[in-house]
Amino acid sequence: MLSGLDLTTLALLAVAGVVLDLMLGEARRWHPLAGFGRWAMWLERRLNRGSGRYCRGALAWLLAVAPPTAIALALLLPSAFWLTCCVQAILLYLCLGLRSLREHNLPIADALARGDLAAARQLTARIVSRDTSGSSATALANASAESLLENGNDAVFGTLFWFAVAGAPGAVLFRAANTLDAMWGYRAVRYLRFGCVAARLDDAFNFLPARLTALSYTLLAPGLRAKLRAWRCWRQQAPLWSSPNAGPVMASGAGALGISLGGAAVYDGEVEQRPPLGQGAGATGADIARAWRLVARTTALWITVFLALAALTELTHA
């Protein structure tokens, strides 16, 4: 393994990281990702100007990603085995966002269940970039379900994948690259050239995790009919989506849940007609909770597979 740790140790550390995330959630103050975001904003303000925006964007990406990845590597310099394991687990915990997905999305479901559209709009605006000021209950539930399904990959499964490949430094590198895509990867005029490298590198890092996530959503769909629907939505609808990785993840997830996502959304005052995803009626508040449970079950599946592979490796080398 690139991490220098055996598969069994990595699997147990992955369990530890997920458990820490579920127990503690996001650090309320001094979260490293918040500090990284401020560092990225500072770089963007100073480099996103003048000519050569593609090269400037590439330089900004390198300057943003290199320090946290180097720090993660430095923290794992030869030391006591138990200390290395503790650092690995803590760094993974800081990169994960499973509990955060629940804490940000289930209150939207609760607000919709109460019929409190104003609260639901305010809560949804915190997790999506679209305009929610005039959104209907269905549009809000759709936005939350889309965010859960997509960020299940970005904040959980992609992080676990790169942790399995390269340990904590791999998880840190992935989360930094994914955060830069979220900040700079827009097609707005300001970021069209500057953010191109960040967007393409995130596509590359996410290519395999996104397809494993789509496969997981399909396998965990309730019943054969739902599994076939999720597979069909993935294969037929994902190629129409602008993002090569969000398309498979959200299409398979919507198909697994039996709901319709995509469609019209307002960005920067303009209505964007997005391709349809899934099959069935639009989402409701109850579907937000179902989407969360799908993400949670997928996390359990990944951890189970990780542990099973570790056990199989131990048996074959016994």
From TrEMBL:
Pfam families: CobD_Cbib (PF03186)
Cell compartments where the protein resides: Cell membrane
Keywords on record: Cell membrane, Cobalamin biosynthesis, Membrane, Transmembrane, Transmembrane helix
The keyword Transmembrane belongs to this UniProt entry's keyword annotation: yes
Domain of life: Bacteria
Main location: membrane
Its membrane topology: Multi-pass membrane protein
Metabolic or biological pathway: Cofactor biosynthesis; adenosylcobalamin biosynthesis
GO cellular component, one term: plasma membrane
Entry similarity comment: Belongs to the CobD/CbiB family.
Database matches in HAMAP family: CobD_CbiB
PANTHER family named among the record's database cross-references: COBALAMIN BIOSYNTHESIS PROTEIN CBIB
Function: Converts cobyric acid to cobinamide by the addition of aminopropanol on the F carboxylic group.
Identification of the protein by name: Cobalamin biosynthesis protein CobD
Organism: Massilia eurypsychrophila
Lineage, opening ranks: Bacteria, Pseudomonadati, Pseudomonadota, Betaproteobacteria, Burkholderiales
